[in-house]
Amino acid sequence: QVQLVQSGAEVKMPGASVKVSCKASGYTFTTYPITWVRQAPGQGLEWMGWISPYNGNIKSGERFQGRVTMTTDTSTSTAFMEMRSLTSDDTAVYYCARVLGWDHFDYWGQGTLVTVSS
Amino acid sequence: SYELTQPPSVSVSPGQTARITCSGDALPKQYGYWYQQKPGQAPVMLIYKYIERPSGIPERFSGSTSGTTVTLIISGVQAEDEADYYCQSSDSSGAYVVFGGGTRLTVL
């Protein structure tokens, strides 16, 4: 069965960076892009971008361009999302999800809570 | 930037029909999708390509579309349907994914 398993919760200081991983199993990793979506406490879903493990193509949301790096490791079927220059506004649960048809998401990871606090 | 507009909340009694709308100028051109999210859980896709239902999703969940509005319809609402519901689509160019602000469904 398809599964996306994310890394554990992180606590970071303002100005630091964080890297979240998302390990896929149950399907051929290079067949489908991986997207990243975040959700601040009590708020809605915010799309961050997606990456194709097949060819490395990336599309980032405008708010995240230049501050977020998405990568994949096809040898371990793992996607990564790194965010730099963290502020308290980046405190959120970060989800990865598998992309279908380049525009919607069928399987989701369990989420990773990133807390930014001094 | 492109936005999808949902009502913040909808309330229905058990057994009634709930309708949650989502409006956006590009919806006639770009597919609409619906997700359900329960507290502490990841979202689950309920409807894709406006009206299609993935396997495993109960038949009481359906979708419709008319012009710049897509609608999630929950027939015979059950207590377990109390959750947040999000619509999702893309901007007119198809380059950027957008979520609606979410609708909290309360089962009275």
Helix content of chain B: under 10%
Low-confidence stretches of chain B: none
Low-confidence sequence ranges of chain A: none
Describe the sheet with the most strands of chain B: 6 strands, mixed
Rg result of chain A: 13 Å
Structural class computed from helices and strand pairing of chain A? mainly beta
- H-E order of chain B: EEEEEEEEE
SSE-based structural type of chain B: mainly beta
Strand content of chain A: over 45%
Oligomer: heterodimer
Strand content of chain B: 35-45%
Distance between the ends of chain A: 40 Å
Number of helices of chain A: 0
Total count of helical runs of at least 4 residues of chain B: 0
Provide a descriptive summary of the structure in words.
The complex is a heterodimer of chains A (118) and B (108). The radius of gyration of chain A is 13 Å and the shape is globular. Helices cover 0% and strands 53% of the residues of chain A. Chain A has no helices and eleven strands. With 118 residues, chain A is mostly beta strands. Chain A has strands at 3-6, 10-12, 18-25, 34-39, 45-51, 58-60, 68-73, 78-83, 92-100, 104-108, 112-116. Chain B has 108 residues and is mainly β. Chain B is built from no helices and nine strands. The A-B interface holds A 35, 37, 44-47, 50, 59, 61-62, 95, 97, 100, 102-106, 108-111 and B 1, 30-31, 33, 35, 37, 42-45, 48, 54, 86, 88-90, 94-102.
